[in-house]
């Protein structure tokens, strides 16, 4: 039975092979035809690692790039890498299509148990599948490299926009050039697409806010925002005008409180209004991330602009001219009323433009346009305001009206604002838009900090005076509770106001050094003015002068704080204590010297100088001390000893090396001694330490007025003694205890020598008292008929010289 079955099976297998022959030959012919038409193959195995290596190298270079030229080169390299990766993917696509065609010709592999294929077909299908998988992987890798390079290019563009805030020495073209206005008249397709996308998202959120489900809430929030923004501050002013004269004590605290309240109310009303307006969109569930971020930025910018407007309204105080803090005439205040509001409006509008450019990733041209236009309008505003003020002053002077008393500080502020505005305009005209933007926002930030500091200092000082005044309820309560007198209250007011001013100055310094509107980096403002006109010469420089600016600010602020504190200690605080004048002068001098050392150390730290790298300075100082600086160092150390041990102090009457006078000042190197004729002798401090010094006033020493007189032998000593004692007792400067005394000094052939002694309160009174006593004693002796002993004089006469004999 098995043999008959084998024969049909063999015939069936033979018939199958014969039937498959045409298909196999057709596959071979197709493979041969495709081989002849195959394009030049790309060696992706070597090109893909090279592309990946280029991408990794670009990422490393981006992390260290700082200059604009570096970012430009990196962006070009990234775009070139995108193009190369896309070309590789396009070149591999035909190969993948060809292999897929061969696989289609071969068809799918037969199921197990069906007809078997020849080993040639099986090997060919396996080889084609492996090639297809490899090509697919390579194409995906090339596309991934292209996407990574494209993302890196976008990142480089963002870093370049951020770098424009610090690359202040970059010449980007004048505002009069065509490139500056190209974003308006010829915007790029990418910018237009991104702004259209953002507008579409805002429009979608706005339409959703007014849909049936959200319409009522949107209307409520919108009406609240408009009501608070337009009428909020005026609504708060009326009750405050009623509260101030009834609840606050009379004095300057009312005006400083009103100024602070005006600033705070303006800021809060405008800020809350913007928050409510933005909340109509941000509360929606489908609001995009761009709209949410933009709303947060609008709220922050509104608060900043509102602070500027509020400070201007509060300091000008046109609603209450009699309570105005700065001494500004009413016509000038009315003239300047619109400038703070315009300035705040410009900052808000163009700040929004700058934030929007950063949010959507706009091009560098669009970013520069927004920065340049904002700087231009702010500079014009800051330049027109002083011009109008000067014109109003000249008009008032011509009409005979009285203007405000101008101070040096006010004139300096006026000059700085005008010069800064001129610098901004010049930078815009010659093409340094990043520099103009930097100076503009630095001017705004410094102006904001200074105005806030001015307002808060007045508020703190007036508050301390009101709290510790003996005439207010708080002062009376402190006096009765703590058993204080008026002097203690005055001292407390001075001390607490000084602490408040010091705290405000420290916070202002920190704000100036570590905060700038529109940036998160410290301020950078030192460039070489002579190279500004060099154009491309500056572009090759990487100028980021944050350390230098911080050092200059630290030095200026530290010097001002030290100078103000020294003046406060010397004139306000220490005179109210029970310290003597010499101790007060020593404390002030010691405080000043320590302050200078600290300022120098802080300034060097701000410059980025590390103390562990100053070994060469220490070595140089050691050599210098060994040769020429030893006297200076010795006098400096001696000055510190004089200020701490106080063997002599300011106001003492000292005598050293035949020089006698009052100590007027103890400096770092030498001490000034004023003589009786008002001339000054400079004595090195080391001599006051190493030599014998007579301090006539140390320990409250009394002065001794001693007069020694010589009388003839025939006088009555008792009569003369009583007369001298009477003259001393009658003088008002002679102390009763110890009592005056007369001593018999000498009895000789020339006469009787008597010495009379009396004590006075101070050695400085000895000279004048002794002179007065001599006048009185001479009168009394003449009245009593007593004469002083005459000094015997021997005259030696020489014979006249003989005349020379004539030859």
Could you describe the 3D structure shown?
- The termini are far apart.
- The strands form two sheets. A five-stranded antiparallel sheet has the order 4-3-2-1-5. Strands 6-8-7 form a three-stranded antiparallel sheet.
- It is an alpha+beta fold and 807 residues long.
- It has 23 helices and eight strands.
- Helices cover 68% and strands 6% of the residues.
- Among the domains are: 17-163, no CATH class; 189-324, no CATH class; 621-701, SH3 type barrels; 703-784, Alpha-Beta Plaits (2-Layer Sandwich).
Low-pLDDT runs of 5+ residues are: 1-39, 516-545, 792-807
Distance between the termini: 195 Å
Q: Mean pLDDT across all residues, rounded?
A: 76
DSSP summary, beta strand count: 8
Q: What would you report as the Rg, rounded to the nearest angstrom? A: 47 Å
How many DSSP helices? 23
Describe what is shown at a glance.
It comes from Buttiauxella ferragutiae ATCC 51602. The protein is an alpha+beta fold. The chain has helices at 2-37, 44-64, 68-106, 119-163, 178-185, 189-209, 215-247, 253-282, 289-316, 330-335, 338-360, 364-398, 408-430, 433-467, 473-482, 486-514, 536-539, 546-573, 581-606, 615-645, 685-690, 717-730, 766-784; strands at residues 653-656, 659-666, 670-674, 680-684, 694-695, 703-711, 741-748, 751-760.
């Amino acid at each position: 039975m098995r043999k008959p079955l084998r024969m049909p099976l063999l015939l069936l297998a033979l018939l199958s092979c014969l039937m498959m022959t045409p298909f196999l030959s057709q596959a071979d012919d197709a493979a041969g035809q495709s081989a002849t038409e195959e394009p030049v193959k790309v060696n992706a195995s070597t090109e893909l690692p090279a592309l990946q290596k280029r991408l990794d190298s670009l990422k490393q270079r981006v992390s260290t790039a700082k200059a604009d030229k570096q970012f430009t080169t990196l962006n070009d390299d990234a775009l070139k890498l995108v193009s190369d990766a896309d070309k590789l993917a396009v070149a591999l696509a035909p190969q993948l299509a060809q292999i897929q065609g061969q696989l289609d010709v071969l068809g799918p592999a037969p199921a197990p148990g069906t007809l078997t294929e020849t080993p040639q077909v099986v090997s060919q299908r396996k080889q084609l599948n492996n090639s297809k998988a490899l090509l697919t992987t390579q194409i995906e890798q090339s596309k991934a490299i292209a996407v990574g390079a494209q993302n890196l290019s976008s990142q480089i563009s963002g870093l370049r926009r951020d770098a424009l805030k610090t690359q202040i020495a970059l010449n980007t073209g004048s505002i009069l050039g065509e490139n500056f206005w190209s974003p308006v008249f010829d915007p790029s397709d990418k910018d237009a697409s991104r702004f259209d996308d953002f507008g579409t998202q805002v429009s979608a959120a706005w339409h959703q806010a007014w849909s049936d489900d959200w319409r009522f809430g949107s209307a409520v929030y919108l009406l609240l925002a408009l009501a608070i923004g337009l009428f909020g501050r005026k609504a708060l002013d009326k009750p405050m005008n009623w509260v101030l004269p009834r609840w606050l004590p009379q004095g300057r605290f009312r005006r400083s409180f009103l100024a602070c309240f005006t600033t705070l109310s303006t800021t809060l009303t405008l800020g809350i209004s913007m928050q409510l307006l933005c909340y109509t969109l941000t509360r929606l569930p489908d609001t995009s991330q761009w709209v949410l971020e933009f709303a947060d930025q609008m709220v922050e910018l509104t608060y900043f602009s509102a602070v500027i407007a509020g400070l201007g309204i509060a300091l000008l105080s046109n609603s209450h001219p009699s309570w105005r803090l700065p001494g500004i005439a009413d016509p000038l205040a009315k003239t300047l009323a619109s400038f703070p509001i315009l300035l705040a409006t410009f900052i808000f509008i163009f700040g929004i433009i700058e934030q929007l450019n950063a949010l959507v990733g706009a091009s560098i041209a669009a970013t520069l346009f927004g920065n340049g236009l904002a700087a231009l309008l702010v500079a014009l505003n800051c330049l027109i305001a002083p011009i109008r003020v000067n014109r109003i002053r000249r008009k008032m002077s011509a009409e005979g009206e009285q203007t405000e008393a101008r101070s040096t500080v006010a004139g300096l502020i006026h000059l700085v604002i005008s010069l800064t505005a001129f610098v901004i305009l010049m930078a815009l005209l010659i093409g340094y838009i990043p520099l103009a933007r930097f100076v503009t926002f630095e001017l705004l930030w410094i102006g904001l900090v200074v105005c806030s500091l001015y307002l808060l200092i007045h508020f703190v000082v007036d508050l301390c005076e009101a709290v510790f005044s003996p005439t207010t309820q708080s002062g009376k309560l402190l006096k009765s509770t703590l058993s204080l007198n008026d002097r203690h209250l005055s001292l407390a007011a001075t001390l607490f106001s000084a602490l408040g001013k010091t705290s405000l100055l420290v916070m202002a310094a920190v704000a100036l050094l570590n905060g700038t509107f529109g940036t998160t980096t410290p301020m950078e403002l030192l460039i070489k003015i002579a190279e500004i006109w060099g154009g491309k010469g500056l572009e090759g420089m990487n100028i980021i002068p944050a350390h230098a600016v911080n050092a200059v600010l630290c030095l200026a602020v530290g010097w001002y704080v030290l100078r103000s504190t020294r003046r406060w200690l010397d004139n306000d605080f220490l005179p109210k204590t029970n310290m003597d004048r010499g101790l007060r002068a020593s404390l002030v001098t010691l405080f000043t010297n320590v302050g200078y050392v600290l300022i120098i150390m802080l300034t060097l730290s701000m410059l980025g100088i590390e103390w562990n790298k100053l070994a060469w300075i220490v070595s140089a100082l050691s050599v210098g001390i060994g040769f020429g600086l030893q006297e200076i160092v010795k006098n400096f150390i001696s000055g510190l000893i004089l200020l701490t041990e106080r063997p002599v102090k300011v106001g003492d009457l000292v005598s050293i090396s035949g020089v006698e006078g009052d100590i007027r000042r103890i400096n770092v190197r030498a001490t000034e001694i004023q003589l009786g004729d008002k001339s000054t002798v400079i004595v090195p401090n080391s001599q006051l330490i190493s030599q014998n010094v007579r301090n006539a006033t140390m320990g409250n020493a009394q002065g001794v007025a001693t007069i020694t007189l010589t009388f003839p032998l025939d006088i009555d000593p008792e009569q003369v003694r009583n007369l001298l004692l009477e003259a001393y007792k009658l003088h008002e400067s002679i102390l009763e205890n110890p009592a005056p005394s007369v001593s018999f000094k000498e009895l000789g052939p020339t006469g009787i020598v008597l010495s009379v002694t009396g004590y006075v309160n101070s050695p400085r009174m000895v000279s004048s008292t002794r002179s007065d006593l001599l006048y009185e004693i001479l009168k009394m002796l003449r009245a009593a008929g007593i004469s002083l002993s005459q000094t015997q004089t021997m005259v030696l006469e020489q014979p006249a010289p003989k005349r020379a004999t004539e030859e």
